[in-house]
């Protein structure tokens, strides 16, 4: 048997769309159907170039801030969440808002509000400048400080070391976040944990699947956009887990043939904002290079779904024929 014959793909499961992304994308699609184009969307609805372009073709207009939305128009807030200031600004401009913030991000916002009400200093582990971190910080700007990694714990200053709690962005590396929490706890032994994990099920499940397959992989390819936090983390997890190389690509056309030289096993996965059609494109391309055996590595079964935002559900219900 030649090396080419032994070429295979390990395909991570779960991968791709999570419940929060699915809900956000369907929200924009349903809003376009219900109210007609254009529908404005603040920021990328999810961090994926393909998804954004497809929705743009259907009449969505993506803006950075609500002041770019004409008064009275409809604006959808992305899955990453927004700060209360953004809601206030939208109200001032009399925009009709549909909030597609993932319920698991909303959960973190609520924890921030509760800790702030208890007048605690809150350490938010996350990436400065990421939309989710800006949204969560905006819930309690006087109480929250952002820490990116264990190395930054030294510089944290609080009012009362016995009254500190931590929260995190939902899409971080589980292992690195644990290290940051350990460093925080060394500094603040009475550190209070959030009531449940902030890193969401989808992030940790996708990381677990990559950890499982990485030791067997000469190369891991993660399909995802480079502004997608959870996708970038999957590359890091693959390398930490023992893969010889790992790359993030937006779509199959960006795969470089040179990566496949001397490679027998390629691991494939995708970030939580990636439609599976992009993974199937990559598998086709890999098959053309002799990687035509695909073995799924399943580490968890996901069944979670979220209902659409209530403001949209209300209008959809009103349109239903009587008695339906
Ligand atoms: S990655 Fe997690 S928090 Fe983010 S949208 Fe998906 S389910 Fe929600």
Automatic annotation (TrEMBL):
The active site is at residue 132. Catalyzes the conversion of 1-hydroxy-2-methyl-2-(E)-butenyl 4-diphosphate (HMBPP) into a mixture of isopentenyl diphosphate (IPP) and dimethylallyl diphosphate (DMAPP). Acts in the terminal step of the DOXP/MEP pathway for isoprenoid precursor biosynthesis. This is 4-hydroxy-3-methylbut-2-enyl diphosphate reductase. Its EC number is 1.17.7.4. The keyword Oxidoreductase applies. It comes from Nocardiopsis gilva YIM 90087. It is an enzyme of class 1 (oxidoreductase). It comes from the Bacteria. HAMAP family: IspH. The gene is ispH. Keywords: 4Fe-4S, Iron, Iron-sulfur, Isoprene biosynthesis, Metal-binding, Oxidoreductase.
């Amino acid at each position: 048997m030649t090396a080419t014959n032994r070429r295979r793909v390990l395909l991570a499961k779960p991968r791709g769309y999570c419940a929060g992304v699915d809900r956000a994308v369907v929200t924009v699609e349903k809003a376009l159907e219900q109210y007609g184009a254009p529908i404005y969307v603040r920021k990328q609805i999810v961090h994926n170039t393909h998804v954004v372009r497809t929705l743009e073709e259907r009449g969505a207009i993506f803006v950075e801030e609500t002041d770019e939305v004409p008064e009275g128009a409809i604006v959808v807030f992305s899955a990453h969440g927004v700060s209360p200031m953004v809601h206030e600004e939208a109200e001032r401009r009399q925009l009709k808002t549909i909030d597609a913030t993932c319920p698991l991000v909303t959960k973190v916002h609520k924890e921030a509000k509760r800790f702030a009400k208890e007048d605690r200093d809150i350490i938010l582990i996350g990436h400065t400048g990421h939309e989710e971190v800006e949204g969560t910080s905006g819930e309690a700007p006087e109480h929250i400080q952002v820490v990116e990694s264990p190395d930054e714990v030294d510089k944290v200053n609080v009012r009362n070391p016995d009254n500190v709690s931590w929260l995190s962005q939902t899409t971080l590396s589980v292992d690195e976040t644990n290290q940051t929490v350990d460093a925080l706890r060394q500094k603040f032994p009475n550190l209070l944990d959030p009531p449940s994990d902030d890193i969401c099920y989808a992030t940790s499940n996708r990381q677990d699947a990559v950890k499982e397959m990485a030791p067997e992989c000469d190369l891991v390819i993660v399909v995802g956009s480079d502004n997608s936090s959870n996708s970038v983390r999957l590359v890091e997890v693959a390398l930490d887990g023992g893969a010889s190389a790992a790359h993030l690509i937006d779509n199959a056309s960006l795969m470089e043939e040179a990566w496949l030289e001397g490679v027998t096993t390629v691991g494939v996965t995708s970030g939580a904002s990636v439609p599976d059609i992009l993974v199937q494109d990559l598998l086709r391309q890999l098959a053309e290079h002799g990687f035509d055996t695909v073995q799924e590595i399943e580490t968890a079964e996901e069944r979670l779904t979220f209902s659409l935002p209530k403001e949209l559900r209300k209008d959809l219900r009103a349109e239903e024929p009587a008695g339906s």
